[in-house]
Specification:
404 residues; 85% helix
Length: 404
């Protein structure tokens, strides 16, 4: 009798722990991704506040995202020394404090320092939260991880749009304070959900010993090719998003319309993750990458030359191919890397793509300063076309690779 009543209790507790872990991870992903992409809406505001060039605006963007990228692998090692609940809640609080400081800065230099601090907190989110979900759901983590990834897109869609709306009624300082409060409240919620949750099994302790091999050794040529394509794909995505508010403004749009444009891209991106995944399963990885990258270049051209209403209407479709390709590339890593070395490969993959997204806008910014926003966007579109070459050429030399 005792055993029969204890088993359901254990099962219920395990189910509750899984749900708490997933909700906490989704909260962290939505908060951090939303706050990170908040920068795009604020770039025109900062340009007017501090009279900055496109290069310096890109530097401000990179101060956040490059810090996030560089510290991602070191941040992931903290989970072996501290309880993940501590790491994730403290990191989220750091991001909130960084935005609070940003709201009270009086110079571009101080603003950059505040964004670096916020980026330090954001660096822990991807490796810690995704690992928590994977451990909690063990061998059935694909769908929960999909929910976790979708939560990030929800944050990207909602927070920048809300910020653009607030900026029509309040100042940047008040807006930054409001979103800093969201970050701090998220940290409290994450802690409340995870404080009594114990990481499952010994799998968490076994991971570090399996990740001592480099990603190059793990994935060899195919992994390097995927990473190369993903780096260019990330450069395209972040470069276009950096200039999108200025493209909308140049086409006669207002600040709320710039926020709407970003929201349309992010909503399309959320849908694109599912659509491009379906395309990859039915038409092959290589064909999907070629189609989505060429479509990205074409739709960027449509947004540049079309009237504002037509450009806005094209943005959801552009967002689908702009963001969906990354999911295809990320999923293809599991096809070319040994299963025992996936953790290290993914950490390198994330670092490479996020680092590219941080640095590329600076390079595009030079083009924007010297040749204008339209020319910079054309270079971004050209990068999308070039990004198909590594996987296409590799597939020709190694028949069948990336085609299934």
């Amino acid at each position: 009798m005792t055993l029969s009543t204890a088993a359901p209790s254990v099962s219920h507790a395990d189910s509750a722990a899984k749900k708490k872990t997933l909700i906490a991870a989704c909260t962290a992903h939505a908060t951090h991704d939303g706050l990170s992409d908040l920068v795009y809406v604020l770039l025109p505001v900062w340009q007017e506040m501090f009279m900055l060039s496109y290069v310096w605006l890109s530097v401000l963007r990179s101060a956040y995202s490059l810090t996030l990228a560089v510290l991602q692998i070191p941040a992931s090692s903290l989970s072996s020394r501290m309880k993940p609940a501590y790491v994730l809640s403290i990191a989220t609080a750091m991001t909130g404090i960084g935005w609070l400081a940003a709201g009270f800065t009086g110079s571009a230099l101080a603003l950059g320092a505040a964004l670096v601090f916020a980026g330090m907190g954001a660096s822990a989110q991807h490796p810690i939260a995704s690992a928590m979900v994977s451990r909690a759901y063990a061998g059935n983590a694909k769908r929960p991880l999909g929910v976790y990834n979708f939560a990030g897109d929800i944050g990207k869609s909602l927070l920048p749009a809300c910020a653009a709306f607030l900026l029509t009624f309040t100042t940047f300082h008040i807006t930054a304070t409001v979103f800093a409060g969201i970050g701090l409240l998220s940290a409290v919620l994450i802690w409340a959900l995870l404080k009594d949750v114990t990481p499952r099994g010994e799998a968490a302790q076994a991971l570090p010993s399996r990740t001592v091999h480099t990603a190059v050794e793990a994935g060899q040529g195919a992994f390097r090719v995927l990473l190369c394509t993903a780096v260019m794909d990330s450069a395209v995505r972040m470069g276009f998003l950096t200039f999108l508010p200025f493209i909308i403004k140049g086409n006669g749009g207002s600040l709320p319309q710039a926020g709407l444009a970003l929201t349309l891209v992010f909503i399309g991106g959320a849908v694109g993750k599912f659509v491009c995944g379906w395309m990859s399963e039915h038409f092959g990885t290589l064909n999907t990458i070629v189609v989505t990258e060429l479509a990205t270049a074409l739709l960027i051209g449509v947004v540049l030359v079309s009237p504002l209403p037509v450009g806005l209407a094209a943005l959801p479709l552009l967002g689908a191919v702009l963001n969906g390709t990354s999911s295809v590339l990320y999923g293809a890593v599991t096809d070319v890397v040994d299963s025992t070395r996936l953790e290290k490969a993914f950490s390198v993959f994330y670092t490479g793509t996020i680092g590219s997204g941080a640095l590329a806008p600076v390079l595009y910014g030079f083009v924007g300063d010297h040749a204008g926003v339209i020319s910079a966007a054309v270079v971004v579109a050209a990068t999308a076309v070039l990004s198909v070459l590594p996987v296409w050429l590799y597939s020709l030399r190694h028949t069948g690779t990336f085609r299934d």
